[in-house]
Amino acid sequence: QVQLVESGGGLVQAGGSLRLSCAASGRTFSNNVMGWFRQAPGKEREFVAASRWSGGSTYYADSTKGRFVISRDNAKNTVYLQMNSLKPEDTAVYYCAAEARPPRQYSASDYARRLTYDFWGQGTQVTVSS
């Protein structure tokens, strides 16, 4: 049974940093896309960042580019999201996601589509105070 478990969320002041982790179990995702999404109260779940595979291409939402960094450790089957210069508008539940299909070419927009991903974590709350 595949599981994605997020950790590292919490309360931080604006301008601060947090590092989220997502540990996968049940299968490896070293050759798959893994990403992060977030959902604020009353809003749709939105794309944050994605990594094609360890050491491969990375993709970011315009709102997180330059502040967030996605990285992976295949040995630990874990993906990370380093969040810097946090803003109150970054407050949301953050979800880890992974796709599980045979290697294929994706367009840049595919990484931001929820339907690209097959597995989701339960989410971790990030709250940024002003």
Query: Helix tally?
Result: 0
Helix content: under 10%
Our measurement of the CA-to-CA distance between the termini, rounded to an integer number of angstroms, reads 40 Å
Report the mean per-residue pLDDT as an integer.
94
Instruction: Please compute the radius of gyration using only Cα atoms.
Output: 14 Å
Can you describe what's shown?
This protein is mainly beta. The protein has no helices and eleven strands. A hairpin with a 6-residue loop joins strand 5 (46-51) and strand 6 (58-60). The model has no long low-confidence stretch (mean pLDDT 94).
Which helices and strands, and how do they pair?
Elements: E1 3-7, E2 10-13, E3 18-25, E4 34-39, E5 46-51, E6 58-60, E7 68-73, E8 78-83, E9 92-98, E10 119-120, E11 124-129
Parallel strand pairs: 2-11
Antiparallel strand pairs: 1-3, 3-8, 4-5, 4-9, 5-6, 7-8, 9-10, 9-11
Descriptive keywords:
seven-stranded mixed beta sheet, four-stranded antiparallel beta sheet, single chain, 130 residues, 0% helix, mainly beta
